[in-house]
Each structure stands twice: as C-alpha cells, then as structure tokens.
Design a protein that fits this description.
This protein is an alpha+beta fold. 23% of the residues lie in helices and 21% in strands. One of its GO terms (biological process) is galactose catabolic process via UDP-galactose, Leloir pathway. Residues 231-370 form the Galactose-1-phosphate uridyl transferase C-terminal domain.
Length: 404
C-alpha cells in the first residue's frame, strides 16, 4: 500500500484489550481524560464467535452479496439498562468492560470476518472481478463498532469538540491498521442515525467495515475517473466552491450540497488537498474537522424540531488501487423531505437506479445553511454545548490547542 506514514495524536492515549471471546477492544482516551489508565478484564462466558459469512456473486452485475445469517440474532432496540454498548455493570455485562471516552471493538455479529483469508479460493481482485454462475467466496475482512460516548443516547452531533476529535482520531488509526490486514481492499467508516434509517441501537456509535473487494460505488467512481481524468475530485471541489451550494468552509475542508443531489438532504465534504483516507490526514486537518463536521451535523438536526435520521458515509480510496486519484469524501444523506415525510425508494430508484429528486439542490443548500446558522446562534447563546461550533470561518484551533 502506497501511503505516507500515519501521524498519531499522542495526546489521545490508546489502551488495547481482548474480550472474552478473543475479539480486539481498544479504548481511546480524550486528552486530559478523567478516567484512570487501568481497565477491567472481560469476565463474561461467551459463546464461540460465529463462522465467517459466505458471499455470493450476482452474475448480472458482478456484485458480491455477503450472506451473514448470524446477524439475524443481534440485539434490537434494547432498553437503556440493557444497552450492549454502555460500560459494563453487574446488571448489564456489556461489550465494554470499563467506563470509557471512545471505545472500538470487533463486531460480535460481523458481515465480514473474522477470517482474513479464504483457503478455498485464490486471493486478489482478479478472482473477484471474474463473472460466473453460482460463485461463492468467504466474506473475509473485519467489522468494528466505534462507540462515540458511554451515554445511552445521542449522535456525533451531540459530542463535545474534544470528544469529536477523539472519534476522528479513532477513525484515522483504525483506517491505518485495517488497511494493513491481508484480504482487506477497502475501509469504510460510517454512522447510521435514527430508526428511520434502520438502526438497532440508540447508543451513539458508528461502524467501520473492511471489505475484501472494491465496493460497487467506488467502482463507479473509478469508471468516471477513466473517462474524465485524474483531476475529477479537485475539479468538483473547485466548481462547488465557486457555486452557490457551499454550506461551510474552513482552511482544510469544504461542505456543500452536490450539483446532482439524489436525496432531500444530501451534503458532501471534501478536504482541500488530496488525501486518500483518514490515515493520510494531518493533525491540523483532524482538528478542524472535529469543529466543522460537528457543526454541520448540528445544523442538519436543526432543520426540524426533531433529530434528523441520516447516513454519514466516509468514502475512502481502496487500499491498493487509484489512491492518487480517489479523495477522502464525506457523503451525508437523509430521506427526510419534510418534518413529517420521508422519501422512500420506489420503483425507479430501487429497481432501476434512476433517481428523481424531490427538492432542488439549491433550495436544499439554502435550507441547510440557514439551519446551520440557527444552530450556531444557539451554541453561542449557550443553549447547546461547544462554543467552537459557532465560529463562521474554521481555523486549526481546537479548544485552545493549535497545530503548527
């Protein structure tokens, strides 16, 4: 993998542990955390981990579908006192044995992994890209859960700026580590938020999927690069910065509603320089992102009187191909088209992939900009935590810390 060395924030301390069934657990402590360095061992008696899922190829599209039947038994919207992502208590022996700031652990019911090699098939993209009938491969890879907070409810937007920065550090380090694993071709951090999206836990958290292939969406991007040229992402950013759909901009990042937005709420964010993934970002870029990304999500929540369901997807370049051309990109999408209405994918979108927009991107950008401004005013007035979120032009200052 051709990447620069990962630069870690040494102010965010890591503690590595192993859960009772052998899964990895990593605690990421906020700078100046109040938590002690000692962490409890996982004393649960757990069943063996499920067998790695198998994936089947659709010969019409070449896409691989992981059949992960063990996920049918995962926890579904438990009460707060049985939250599996809360710190463990005698009455709730959870997935995280100790109190924490941010915790990352291997998913108990993964869609990919824990195996990292398929003993029955040749390795590599050439095999996976071949089209045939009744093709089956092992769903090698890894799936991790990222707990943003020990609180039972919330989202990335409800975090402090310091905690948001710790989560971003976890994304960067895990992207670096997962990209080194054999069999992993693409790493994808994301957050699903809201029951309308299909979340099964209210606890503020996200996930990181490590795929054994380059995902279909990224393959479409590669096809566009083949036609347009290697400057596609740089030209998109320049075009959007010169247009009227920018939501927020800073020294290192710009967020905007894209020219051909599919969803009623859709915001993309790009770094100003070319970086293929979180692992390649600088400390200053992560510092600014903690402020800017949090402010964006708080604004999206301020669109209506109730929190907005969304998928926040961090698209990263594949591990081994086109890293000099594919840029790290956030895509936040929500089906919410009004306070009490959702956009459902019906025949044209779901069956044919032919999208019809309900709101013009220009109107959506204006709505989101005004919501971000309302949220910033509320922050400045002390109605919401995090005074840094009200700064109109984001600098590289993070609550008193400045990156050189």
């Amino acid at each position: 993998m051709n990447t620069p060395d990962f630069v870690a924030d040494t102010g965010i301390i890591r503690h590595r542990h192993t859960l009772a069934d052998g899964r990895d657990l990593i605690y990421f402590d906020d700078p100046q955390t109040t938590l002690p360095p000692e962490r409890a061992a996982d004393l649960r008696e757990l069943d063996p981990r499920p067998a790695t899922a198998r994936m089947r190829q659709d010969p019409l599209t070449g896409e691989w579908v992981s059949i992960a039947a063990a996920r049918q038994n995962r926890v579904f919207l438990p009460p707060a006192h049985l939250d599996p992502l809360a710190p463990s208590t005698p009455g709730n022996p959870s997935e995280v044995p100790s109190n924490y700031d941010v915790a990352v652990f291997e998913n108990k019911s993964p869609s990919f992994g824990p195996l990292l090699t398929d003993a029955d098939a040749p390795a590599g993209l050439d095999d996976l890209n071949t089209i045939g009938l009744n093709r089956i491969r092992t769903s090698v890879g890894r799936c991790e859960v990222v707990c943003f907070s020990p609180e039972n409810e919330g989202s990335f937007a409800s975090l402090s700026v310091v905690r948001a920065r710790t989560v971003i550090e976890a994304w960067a380090e895990r992207t670096h580590a997962l990209s080194q694993l054999p069999g992993v071709e693409q790493v994808f951090p994301f957050e699903n938020r809201g029951e309308a999206i299909g979340v099964t836990l209210h606890h503020p958290h996200g996930q990181i999927y490590s795929y054994p292939y380059v995902t279909p969406r990224t393959q479409r991007v590669i096809a566009s690069l083949d036609q347009y040229g290697p400057n596609l992402f740089a030209d998109i950013l320049a075009s959007e910065q010169a247009g009227g759909r920018v939501i927020l901009t800073g020294e290192h990042w710009t967020a905007f509603v894209p020219f051909a937005a599919r969803w009623p709420i859709e915001v993309h964010m790009l770094p100003h320089r070319h970086v293929p993934d979180f692992a390649a970002t600088s400390l200053a870029e992560r510092d600014e992102l903690a402020v800017l990304y949090r402010r964006l999500l708080r604004g999206i929540d301020a669109l209506y009187d109730t929190p907005t369901p969304y998928i926040a997807a961090w698209h990263q370049a594949p591990v081994s191909v086109r890293r000099d051309e594919i840029r790290l990109m956030l895509q936040v999408t929500s089906p919410r088209r009004a306070a009490d209405k959702l956009k459902f994918l019906a025949g044209s979108e779901a069956a044919m992939g032919a999208w019809i927009g309900d709101v013009t991107p220009e109107q959506a950008a204006d709505n989101i900009r005004r919501a971000v401004e309302r949220s910033a005013v509320a922050d400045a007035a002390g109605e919401q935590a995090g005074p840094a979120a009200s700064v109109p032009t984001i600098s590289t200052t993070l609550e008193g810390q400045t990156r050189e």
